[in-house]
Amino acid sequence: MLRILAALTLMVCTVGLGARAAPADQGQPPPPSGQPADPRIVLLKLLPAGSKLEDLRPSPIPGIYEFMQGADISYLTADGKFFLDGNLYDMESRENLTEVLRARARLTLINAVPESQMVIFGPKNPLYTITVFTDVDCAYCRKLHSEMAELNRLGVRVRYMFFPRTGPNTESWKKAEVVWCSPDRNEALTRAKTGAQLDMGKTCDATPIAREYALGQSIGVRGTPAIVTESGDYISGYMPPRELIQQIKSLQVAKR
Predict the structure, then answer these.
(1) Cα–Cα distance for residue pair 241/255, rounded to 1 Å
(2) Given CB 3.0 to 4.6 Å as the disulfide criterion, which of 47, 127, 175, 179 pairs with 51?
(3) pLDDT digit string (tens) for 199-244?
(4) Is 165 annotated as catalytic?
């Protein structure tokens, strides 16, 4: 959401505060007789560069469109006058409709990544699977990993994806690449999270670090560990194993 708002702010600075949106028919062929123009064509001009027509779709509220990029969801009035940043609730069911969309988007994005591109620690017959965006140097990521045996014993399967918070071309990013390029990634990740010295000269042709970092940004990761459940729910930060399982159960119950 912050990325969307920043892009919108940049647009305002570029065109000037007094600039107005182009007329609805500017640069567009007139619609066939009796058929209104798709208002999304005009709204698209108000949104960040790279936005696509399919990023906009009608919301449950008439006259308001959902704008969706990754798991970032916001709302825009059909006339383009108002941009809404927040959650939309169904007052009858009390359901957070925006979070339902976010969870669905997170799952779609994560499920598109093959498990061969993850580092996985799990029991033979897991009860729960979580996907964790992790930073090798993050203290709370290390705390979570130090309890891996307990997590596995309690039936939690952990699928790691890399999210070096400091970004590309930093030491944490390089450590993630070294872990990926190691013959035994699980062992290398465990060593890295204990602070053991890594062979920083180890390289390989391709790593998923950049893709997973971009994916984390798309689903709204702002810090690590960032945990996504099998239902697409987002849990921010460290929890002791039993508390984490209780949180997962609570989220499952809330969806029933």
Answers:
(1) 22
(2) 47
(3) 988 889 899 999 999 999 999 999 999 999 999 999 999 999 999 9
(4) yes
Question: Domain containing 34: what range?
Answer: 2-89
**Quick one: which of 243, 148, 220 has its CA closest to 189?**
148
CA–CA distance, 178 with 182 (Å, rounded to integer) = 6
210 and 242 co-located in one domain = yes
The pTM of the full predicted model, rounded to 2 decimals, is 0.81
Extract the runs of DSSP E, i.e. beta strands, from 122-254.
Answer: 128-134, 156-162, 226-228, 234-236
- Residues 85 and 114 both lie in one domain: no
**Active site annotation includes 38:** no
* pLDDT, position 252: 85
DSSP conformational letter for 162: E
Please tell me which residue in 40, 106, 141, 159 is annotated as part of the active site. Answer: 141
pLDDT at 29: 53
> Does 181 participate in catalysis according to the annotation?
no
Residue 138 annotated to the active site:
yes
- Catalytic pick among 40, 102, 142, 165: 165
| Mean pLDDT computed over 110-119 | 97
> Catalytic: which of 102, 138, 142, 159?
138
Model confidence band, residue 39 (pLDDT cutoffs 50, 70, 90): confident
Based on the fold, state whether residues 130 and 200 are members of the same structural domain: yes
Per-residue pLDDT band at 191 (split at 50, 70, 90): very high
The verdict on 174 and 204 lying in the same domain is: yes
In the set 135, 137, 157, 233, the catalytic residue is 135
The SS3 assignment for 51 reads: coil
Percent of the chain surpassing pLDDT 90: 74
- Give the model's pLDDT for residue 6: 47
CA 163/CA 225 separation, integer angstroms:
9
> Could you tell me the two tokens for 117?
């591109």
